[in-house]
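quick one: NDP bound model?
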Amino acid sequence: MPNILFAAGPRMWETYRSPLKTALDAAGIAHDLRTDFAPDQVDYIVYAPSSTLQDFRPYTRTKAVLNLWAGVEGIVGNDTLTQPLARMVDHGLRQGMTEWVTGQVLRHHLDIDYFLARQSGDWAPKVPPLAQDRPVALLGLGELGQACAGALGAIGFPLRGWSRNPKSLPGIETFHGPRGLTECLSQAATVVLLLPLTPSTENLLNATTLAALPAGAVIVNPGRGGLIDDAALLAALDAGRITHATLDVFRQEPLPADHPYWANPRVTVTPHIASETRPDTASQVIAENIVRAEAGQPLLHRVDREQGY
Ligand code: NDP
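yep, here:
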């Protein structure tokens, strides 16, 4: 009977306790699920990087650390972690991100802000172009990037996508590697960042790459704050080269009250709500991974420690 340590904090424990038990029972896993065990008695750790557990060395029999978040930048560099690490991929995360990204892209595409600013009786027609005339570049073609591509493509946006490895995906013009990035950006009306934060992606949108975008482009970042060089983005916004940036994630969260993003009319800040792991579906993913590990099968969504995602 595996001992499963829940190490994601007391608030998450309240939320996850019941769905996890339900999912583990449904998967037929007799288990002991708790927030405290002697470290050398733990078989699996359900984890969030905000946890107080930061030293994995005493967890000598632990077969896997199962992260509740999609992003692993807060744990992947932990040198004490020698156990296999899996990240979260779940239906709720995908669906939430698809809805958020589609909504933000459409807001800018339809120029909804223009009409909101004219509700005092200003009859000022401005017909938006069709989606087919507004290419969207998706930086990151993983679980979330591809899910968003499905929805945006169905509306009619021409799609360009960038990833580390070459990819062939229906309905997306794909690019890879550093040279591919400039090409991918060169015809994008909107850029959506759905990359993990790693040493290779930090400050990916900087003065040089922002300059590769057509004038008037819009940035939508639900990926990670560190993907963007903030000073370069603010300069591009001030120069009017970038029309608007909708940002959900920041180097420092909560975003400090005096950060220039708050006061900039060309920036919309949302407080890291683009998509959240949903307890019911995420618990099923955790249970499935424990079933797999118990059966000696490879973990789903295992993190490549070298690549950092
Ligand atoms: P995946 O690991 O499935 O996809 C990551 C994508 O990024 C892959 O296409 C990968 O390329 C690409 N990539 C990674 N490194 C590079 C690089 N150096 N150059 C080019 N492409 C690169 O991740 P998800 O789609 O599940 O999640 C993406 C990110 O979204 C998470 O890491 C997290 O930071 C963020 N997120 C934000 C949330 C929010 O609420 N704001 C919620 C959930 C996630 P390849 O395909 O070649 O491997």
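The chain has two domains: 3-90+277-294, 92-269.
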